[in-house]
Design goal:
The protein is an alpha/beta fold and about 450 residues long. Helix content is about 30%, strand content about 25%.
């Protein structure tokens, strides 16, 4: 976090550009207080337009004055040009060095009504091969600063429903239903994010039945889902579909792709987001033949590409990022997401617990809004393998996400940390925790309302 943000709060942080906006700067303690009745000079500088001394012809710069209000805050109204970050340099006098420099961000019109929500679209719990129970995974990721998360256990949909039921009405963390899909004849991993029914459970028997057989209550969100088919019925259907694929030479790939297309159709029918994850995952050898990866990428039986996933080697995320930009040059430009593929949510003991995430710019933190916004390419993948984070996505959104990583998320995450702690205390049976959680509920929505005037 920028040192200045420990001393001053500034809001709104982001707003629509090409108009006047009133900004408030609030001192956070007597050591940072503004002098009463003193006239301060505020220089507004659009960062992308460089120094006025070197490039004086550029616009996006202004100078104004402001005097502290009775509550000690400094308020001023300025015109913020276009889209981008602006430095606000507050000085004692017009020619003095800045007392403090703070940043705000103006946005283009298409960002009206869009707010940043960060989360994970692919992780696991003890219901498959993860290390913590679903309710604990949710608590830990809230503590890590997530606005939304999914439970996407291997071959199982019901754990996400368990997590939703456990935390219902107790937190603003959006727990999205989902699953990682593994079906016969197909080794391509696939994530169903937000679908209203399980695709795994459409072929019987599958591990999802271990909760309550084929009961719709545990394989659908709303009690509606197609009837399951037997393994023999599925096999016959896939073989028939594979026979119609004429541009793949290898039978293994024809069968695999037939399953992949069918899977995507079911995810779409369920209203979910189909995610193509980690094709460059090294497990024994590369998960998929590279030629087949290119084929899948170009045919696009998915809604979003997991460009950043849960591994450290450059040959994993680095190659996926290179593939994304190479395909982008060719006009193939899928939405991108980043996910941990976490199998343990405890950061101290799992190097991949916080490795990647996604920032989605959506009208609200709901399943449908997140899915629609990702499909519309309002998402950025975040790589936090090290503290020198990197971002993948469309350039303009990457720049905005960078601003948020420096100026918003450190504050947001401090608030979430405490909530995550008391969610864990609630799991442990602490009777006072529910009162604390009730008091904290609404803090992140209030923060979004305060900092984003879009």
């Amino acid at each position: 976090m920028h040192p200045a943000l420990y001393n001053y709060d500034i809001f709104p942080k982001a707003f629509l550009g090409d108009r006047e906006t009133t900004v408030t700067v609030q001192p956070l303690g007597g050591h940072a207080a503004f002098k009463a009745d003193h006239v301060y000079t505020v220089h507004v500088r659009k960062v992308a337009n460089s120094s006025p001394h070197l490039y004086p012809e550029y616009s996006g710069r202004s100078t104004l004055t402001a005097t502290p209000d009775a509550d000690g805050c400094l308020r001023f109204t300025a015109y913020f040009e276009g889209e981008g970050e602006h430095y606000l340099r507050i000085c004692d006098s017009p020619d003095a060095r800045p007392l403090v420099q703070l940043s705000v961000y103006s946005l283009a019109e298409d960002m009206a009504g869009r707010y940043p929500y960060r989360g994970d679209l692919h992780l696991h719990t003890t219901r498959s091969d993860g290390a913590q129970a679903p309710e604990v995974v949710c608590a830990n990721y809230r503590g890590h600063g997530y606005d939304f998360t999914v439970i996407s256990d291997h071959e199982r949909y019901y754990p996400s429903l368990e997590a939703q039921a456990y935390w219902k009405d107790l937190t603003d963390l959006n727990i999205v239903q989902g699953e990682e899909i593994h079906l016969p004849y197909n080794d391509v991993h696939y994530v169903n994010f937000g679908g209203t029914f399980s695709v795994n459970a459409l072929v019987s028997p599958r591990p999802n039945t271990e909760k309550a057989g084929d009961d719709l209550a545990w394989r659908s969100l709303d009690g509606k889902a197609p009837d399951p088919m037997t393994h023999e019925q599925f096999s016959a259907m896939i073989k028939e579909r594979a026979a119609k694929i004429t541009d793949l030479d290898k039978e293994s790939e024809r069968m695999s792709f037939a399953v992949l297309e069918w899977t995507y159709e079911q995810v779409q029918a369920a209203g979910g987001l189909g995610i193509f994850p980690h094709p460059y995952w090294l497990f024994d050898m590369m998960q998929l033949p590279e030629d087949y990866t290119y084929y899948i990428y170009k045919k696009a039986p998915f809604d979003a590409f997991e460009v950043l996933g849960g591994e450290n080697p450059f040959s994993h995320n680095g190659f996926q990022t290179a593939l994304y930009y190479e395909m982008k040059q060719q006009g193939i430009d899928p939405p991108v997401v980043g996910s941990t593929d976490s199998h343990s949510s405890i950061a101290e003991h799992n190097r991949n617990a916080l490795i990647c995430s996604t920032i989605v710019f959506a009208p609200e933190n709901t399943d449908r809004a997140l899915i629609n916004s990702i499909k519309q390419k309002y998402s950025v993948a975040v790589d936090t393998i090290s503290k020198e984070y990197r971002l993948v996505g469309d350039y303009r959104l990457v720049k905005y996400a960078c601003f948020l990583m420096e100026n918003y998320y450190p504050l947001h995450d401090r608030a979430c940390l405490t909530e995550g702690y008391f969610m864990n205390r609630y799991v442990a049976g602490d009777k006072q925790a529910i009162d604390v959680l009730a008091a904290m509920k609404g803090q992140i929505p209030a923060m979004i309302k305060k900092y984003f005037s879009v």
